[in-house]
């Protein structure tokens, strides 16, 4: 064990010894669940009113707090549920499982609390956002489909590369720098239909949390953010079904008990069917998706629970059957929760994740098959030492199997020769320790350390280059070119080709000014050993993941943030402001004219650079009342730089800083929801942001009568400002309460005033006039939608 880890462990141990254990103490622990379904509840607040202290439930609904012997009033509170108040005589360790009842809102003359996450000003947690699923379902989205990814775009610091593009960007980071987890399993592509829908069925989702900074030590492997999503467990009391029928897609969910109050199942499916209408015409093109969420949960006894969850999704895009693109995620997770005692909770997970992407090109005569798989073993522990200290620690190990591409002839008449690009393998083990500690009534701290390793493994034959440089530089033409290998080196199966290790310290602090105000600060270092090889602004199915090696070094992030939070009128209004700075080493950049598709030596077209992002985020929220919502604004800059390796080299973009493809100087979002009465509710989202960075031509020359544009510095220009307004209305019939099948109608309009936002601007020579012209491509105008939702 390294000296750094020993010092951290020693510091943690000494801090615990400083706690006052002279007074006799006992623990209060248990599980919080939904009274109607037995669904465990994440993030329930448990308040000990006499001591003005408390805790929250973990990802599996478990809580534990150690207190001095005495009589206490314990309040259990959770957004969207009625509070539960218990009198507890703590003379021994007590296990108290609590079932909370959903709030029954009456909207006549009563001002209600809404399902919006209020900031916890005392917890040493910052740069973290959470939106309840109930709130997400009230937000208007495209084509009538509730969309989790579209909802997080309303938060400060979160954007996407453009309309109709997949993925999302956090604090100036690339889409591949986000770790997206569904029941702890990695999702490599989060979008259906190239960004029109997300892969997450909101009906099957229980909880989601976005970490933009201050990332806990249990997470690693990415340098921008962590989106942590958990599926529902399923109703273990009675059978329940729900779903929705829309214009181009429908969904259904079924859940119920396997053994009442002990075991449950959940199955949810979605599919689009717009392509079926195309078959009624002569149009032979189609694009559709389908996915399936599943989960089995079983309570063995009070100390042991088993979960088996899975997700399977596919997208199919076809042009006249001659071009067929199929891609999607498949994940499976077997988990065992074990409670060693009232203070020590553990979770053991075996996780499989697979992302497949393939092409069939009949007009050329070949099939393309590629993907990435990983196998992950995680063992996590949560140790509730006392009312002031919680310790989290664990290990995880991931084995990667990369398939960069396999080509096969599509039929016997094809002249294409079969070819398999070199498969790649890697192993990423890590261990971590994290402590959350309340040092005084004013000051709380969360500190931890993650130690990650990465082994690039054989079997593979690796190119050898002169001076170990896979990219050469032509001094006469001032351009970068592919270097010619001078030989190869063979590595046997599982032989280490390259290895890396990194210490990743994490620190978050909160200082309480008073009961309504606090200031917070954080620092975290993170390492990313995977690279997405792409020349687009957002992920596409053709992109290839590659492991770090001798030429592709791991990305290393250092991020600093400071913030201020305030609640007013007992939490009715809240205000948050944060400033951040982040710096990433070893961010890949591509040489001009880089060929990325089916490239077996990707190191020949990439150079290591660096990136930085900094900005200010503001979030103002109204959390209660018939009208509620939030306004978010971000002022930021995201830049990249790749300098020359020697004084003679010019680097990329002359070695100057330039805007990344996801830089958005201004980003404003206004989200509002209004409950008119128990029958009608309304929602709206207004979005305005700086246009996407692009490179326009700054001149031209004529070659054989054809005007050829010349280009200046990268991303020196921007598309026009992007803005749009979406609205929705939900009709819930008043006689729903007396019906077995309850229904509601959701009416929506995307882009109400039909703004023609530019997805791109292309420059070309007009075939008739011969003049140069700029052509704007817009994907959406106004898009109305209607969906019927039901449950029984």
TrEMBL record:
Domain of life: Bacteria
TonB-dependent receptor plug domain span: 127-222
Transmembrane segments: none
Cofactors named for this entry: Mg(2+)
InterPro entries: Beta-barrel_TonB_sf (IPR036942), CarboxyPept-like_regulatory (IPR008969), Isocitrate_DH_NADP_mono (IPR004436), Plug_dom (IPR012910), Plug_dom_sf (IPR037066), TonB-dep_rcpt-like (IPR039426)
Bilayer topology term: Multi-pass membrane protein
Subcellular location field: Cell outer membrane
Keyword check for Cell membrane: no
EC code: 1.1.1.42
Protein name per the record: isocitrate dehydrogenase (NADP(+))
Originating organism: Flavobacterium jejuense
């Amino acid at each position: 064990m390294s000296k750094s880890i020993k010092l951290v462990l020693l510091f943690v141990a000494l801090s615990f010894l400083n706690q006052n254990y002279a007074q006799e103490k006992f623990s209060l622990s248990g599980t919080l669940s939904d009274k109607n379904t037995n669904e465990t509840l994440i993030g329930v607040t448990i308040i000990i009113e006499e001591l003005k202290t408390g805790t929250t439930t973990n990802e599996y609904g478990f809580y534990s707090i150690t207190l001095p012997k005495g009589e206490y009033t314990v309040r259990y509170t959770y957004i969207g549920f009625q509070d539960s108040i218990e009198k507890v005589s703590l003379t021994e360790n007590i296990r108290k499982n609590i079932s909370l009842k959903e709030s029954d809102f009456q909207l006549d003359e009563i001002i209600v609390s809404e399902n919006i996450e209020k900031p916890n000003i005392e917890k040493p947690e910052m740069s973290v956002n959470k939106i309840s699923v109930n709130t997400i379902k009230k937000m208007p989205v495209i084509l009538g489909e509730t969309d989790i990814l579209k909802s997080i775009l309303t938060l400060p610091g979160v954007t996407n590369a453009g309309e109709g593009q997949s993925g999302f960007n956090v604090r100036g980071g690339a889409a591949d720098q986000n770790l997206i987890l569904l029941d702890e399993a990695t999702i490599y592509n989060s979008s259906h239909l190239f960004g029109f829908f997300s892969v997450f069925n909101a009906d099957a989702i229980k909880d989601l949390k976005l970490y933009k900074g201050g990332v806990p030590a249990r997470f690693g492997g990415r340098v921008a953010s962590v989106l942590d999503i958990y599926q529902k467990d399923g109703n273990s009391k009675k059978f329940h079904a729900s779903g929705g029928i829309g214009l181009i897609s429908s969904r259904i969910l079924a859940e119920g008990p396997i053994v009442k109050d002990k075991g449950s199942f959940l199955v949810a499916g979605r599919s689009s069917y717009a392509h079926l209408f195309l078959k009624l015409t002569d149009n032979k093109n189609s694009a559709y998706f389908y996915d399936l969420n599943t989960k089995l949960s079983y309570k063995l006894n009070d100390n042991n629970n088993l979960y088996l969850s899975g997700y399977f999704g596919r997208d199919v895009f076809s042009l006249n059957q001659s071009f067929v693109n199929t891609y999607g995620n498949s994940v499976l997770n077997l988990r065992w929760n074990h409670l060693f005692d009232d203070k020590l909770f553990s979770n053991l997970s075996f996780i499989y994740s697979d992302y497949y992407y393939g092409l069939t090109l009949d007009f050329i005569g070949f099939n393309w098959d590629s993907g990435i798989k990983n196998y992950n073993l995680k063992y996590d522990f949560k140790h509730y030492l006392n009312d002031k200290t919680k310790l989290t620690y664990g290990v995880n190990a991931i084995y990667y199997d990369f398939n960069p591409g396999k080509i096969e002839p599509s039929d016997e008449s094809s002249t294409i020769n079969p070819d398999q690009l070199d498969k790649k393998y890697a192993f990423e083990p890590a261990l971590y320790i994290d402590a959350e500690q309340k040092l005084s009534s004013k000051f709380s701290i969360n500190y931890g350390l993650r130690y990650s390793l990465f082994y690039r493994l054989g079997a593979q034959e690796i190119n050898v280059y002169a001076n170990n440089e896979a990219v050469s530089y032509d001094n006469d033409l001032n351009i970068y070119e592919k270097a010619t290998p001078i030989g190869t080196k063979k590595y046997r199966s599982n032989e280490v080709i390259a290895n890396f290790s990194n210490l990743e310290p994490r620190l978050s602090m909160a200082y309480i000014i008073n009961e309504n105000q606090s200031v917070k600060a954080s620092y975290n270092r993170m390492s990313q050993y995977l690279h997405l090889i792409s020349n687009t602004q957002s992920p596409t199915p053709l992109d290839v993941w590659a492991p770090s090696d001798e030429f592709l070094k791991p990305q290393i992030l250092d991020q600093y943030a400071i913030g201020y939070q305030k609640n007013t009128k007992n939490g009715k209004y809240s205000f948050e402001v944060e400033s951040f700075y982040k710096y990433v080493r070893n961010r890949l950049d591509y040489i001009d004219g880089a060929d990325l598709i089916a490239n077996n030596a990707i190191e020949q077209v990439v150079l290591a650079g660096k990136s930085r992002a900094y900005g200010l985020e503001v979030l103002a929220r109204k959390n209660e009342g018939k009208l509620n919502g939030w306004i978010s604004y971000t002022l930021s800059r995201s830049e990249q730089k790749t300098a020359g390796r020697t004084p003679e080299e010019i680097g990329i973009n002359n070695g100057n800083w330039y805007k990344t493809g996801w830089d958005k100087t201004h980003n404003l979002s206004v989200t509002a929801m209004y409950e008119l009465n128990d029958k009608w509710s309304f929602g709206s989202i207004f979005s305005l942001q700086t246009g996407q960075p692009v490179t326009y031509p700054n001149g031209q020359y004529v070659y054989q009568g054809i005007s050829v544009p010349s280009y200046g510095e990268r991303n020196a220009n921007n598309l026009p400002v992007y803005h749009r307004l979406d609205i929705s209305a939900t009709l819930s019939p008043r006689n729903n309460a007396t019906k077995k099948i309850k229904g509601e109608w959701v009416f929506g309009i995307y882009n109400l005033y039909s703004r023609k936002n530019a997805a791109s601007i292309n420059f070309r020579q007009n075939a008739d006039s011969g003049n140069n012209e700029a052509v704007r491509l817009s994907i959406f105008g106004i898009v109305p939608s209607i969906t019927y939702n039901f449950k029984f």
